[in-house]
Amino acid sequence: MLDRDEIHTLYVEECGNPAGLPVLFIHGGPGAGCDSLHRRFFDPERYRIILFDQRGCGRSTPHACLKNNTTSHLIEDIEAIRKHLGVSEWLLFGGSWGSTLSLVYAQNYPQHVVGMILRGVFLCRKQEIDWFYQQGASRIHPDYWTDFLAPVPELERNDLVSAYHRLLNSDNDITRMTAARAWSQWEARCAHLHTNNAFTKHYDGTRAALAMARIENHYFFHDSFLYESPILDNMHRIKNIPGIIIHGRYDVICPLENAFELQTTWPGSELQIIPAAGHAATEPGITDALIKATTIFSIDIIPGDIP
Question: Are 235 and 118 within one domain?
Answer without folding.
Answer: yes
